[in-house]
């Protein structure tokens, strides 16, 4: 069942603090509640419980990426679909069992409404010391009754270069003062390339050491835009433990494994049926099709280059069969 919200208010509907100190949130016909260990999501035909650490890590990505490309599954039941202007909030829509039992439910919201509610919930439910973007080994726990907050972490600015990191006026190179080298990347060389520009071209030629840049990332599973050429975005990221969402593609994505190893579980986007398991080691390149969902497992902190085509036309071209769901014909 799908319904659309007609009323375009962006007002956040929050209750007074509950027994554990957290507000409940109502968004359309969905209701969200947290206690010491869990997030509870209810909708007119069902209810669902998620561990609060998984929930906050997924919510953090959905908020920071402004609903990302396509589908952000928090788990096998709840998530969002980005329609770039509006967003579907769903329960069981991509789960065969929920659909067969007619327990599935979808409600569409203007993006500002769901964005503001999710931001408020993430901020209220994240306690002092818990950083949803950090690897589990580098943060305190999210459990327990309400105790402080971590607004600085949950609102951190996302790196999005206009042209490229290191270009004058664009995103800056990282240094010891702002971004110490991560414990797992202590062996990554920190030298920077020497640029010898012809006179008059000093502002137009730039280069930086991407490995050194990534070795200083203090977040995990958070692709940031380091270079842009029209719709072609280089979005490298450092990964450790498990990607906190199951991403449903609405376009092809290329992966280049820059270091170490990630194991990907690749499923059919709409049913969740397993399609393949892909182990990527340093130097491996893969194209993830436009009709899958995937979740990565990184046993050690690793570097991954995600190459995105940000063209706004792609979802429709793929949906109508005018563009294929895979990028290359061999
Ligand atoms: C993806 O869904 O393709 C994705 C998301 C976040 C990452 C890496 C890959 O850190
Ligand atoms: Fe993806």
What does this structure look like?
The protein is an alpha+beta fold. It has helices at residues 52-64, 96-100, 111-125, 151-154, 210-215, 314-319, and strands at 2-4, 13-14, 25-27, 30-34, 38-43, 46-51, 71-73, 78-82, 86-91, 105-110, 227-229, 232-242, 246-248, 253-257, 261-268, 274-281, 285-288, 292-309. Strands 1, 7, 8, 9, 10, 11, 12, 13, 14, 15, 16, 17 and 18 form a 13-stranded mixed beta sheet that branches. The model has no long low-confidence stretch (mean pLDDT 96). Fe (iii) ion binds at residues 247, 249, 253, 288, 294.
Which structural category do the helix and sheet elements fall into?
alpha+beta
Radius of gyration: 21 Å
The share of residues in extended strands comes to 25-35%
Counting DSSP H or I runs of 4 or more residues, the number of helices is 6
Q: For this entry, what is the oligomeric state of its chains?
A: single chain
Q: pLDDT under 50 segments (min length 5)?
A: none
β-strand number: 18
How would you sum up the major sheet?
Answer: 13 strands, mixed
How helical, in percent, are the residues? 10-25%
The dominant shape is globular
Q: What gap, in angstroms, lies between the N and C termini?
A: 40 Å
Order of SSEs: EEEEEEHEEEHEHHHEEEEEEEEH
Report the average pLDDT across residues: 96
Which compounds are bound in this model?
P-hydroxybenzoic acid, fe (iii) ion
């Amino acid at each position: 069942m799908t319904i659309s919200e007609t009323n375009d208010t962006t007002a956040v509907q929050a209750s007074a603090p509950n027994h554990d100190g957290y507000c409940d949130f109502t968004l359309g016909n969905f209701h969200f509640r947290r206690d010491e260990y869990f997030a509870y999501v209810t909708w007119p035909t069902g209810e669902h419980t998620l561990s609060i650490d998984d929930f906050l890590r997924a919510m953090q990505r959905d908020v920071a990426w402004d609903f990302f490309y396509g589908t952000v599954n928090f788990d096998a039941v709840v998530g969002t679909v980005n329609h770039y202007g509006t967003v579907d909030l769903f329960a069981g829509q991509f789960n065969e069992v929920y659909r067969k039992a007619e327990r599935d439910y979808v409600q569409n919201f203007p993006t500002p409404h769901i964005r503001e509610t999710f931001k408020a919930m993430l901020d209220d439910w994240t306690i002092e010391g818990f950083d949803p973007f950090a690897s589990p080994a580098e943060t305190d726990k999210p459990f327990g009754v309400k105790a402080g907050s971590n607004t600085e972490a949950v609102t951190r600015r996302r790196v999005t270069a206009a042209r490229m990191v290191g270009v004058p006026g664009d995103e800056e190179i990282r240094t010891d003062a702002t971004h110490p080298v991560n414990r797992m990347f202590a062996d990554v060389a920190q030298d920077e390339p020497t640029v010898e520009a012809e006179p008059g071209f000093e502002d137009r030629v730039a280069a930086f050491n991407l490995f050194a840049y990534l070795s200083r990332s203090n977040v995990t599973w958070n692709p940031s835009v380091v270079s842009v050429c029209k719709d072609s975005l280089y979005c490298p990221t450092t990964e450790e433990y498990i990607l906190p969402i199951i991403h449903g593609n609405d376009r092809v994505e290329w992966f280049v494994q820059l270091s170490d190893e990630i194991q990907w579980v690749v499923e059919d986007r709409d049913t969740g049926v397993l399609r393949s398991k892909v182990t990527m080691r340093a130097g491996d390149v893969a194209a993830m099709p436009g009709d899958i969902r995937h979740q990565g497992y990184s046993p050690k902190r690793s570097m991954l280059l995600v190459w995105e085509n940000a063209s706004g036309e792609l979802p429709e071209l793929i949906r109508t069969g005018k563009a294929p769901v895979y990028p290359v014909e061999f």
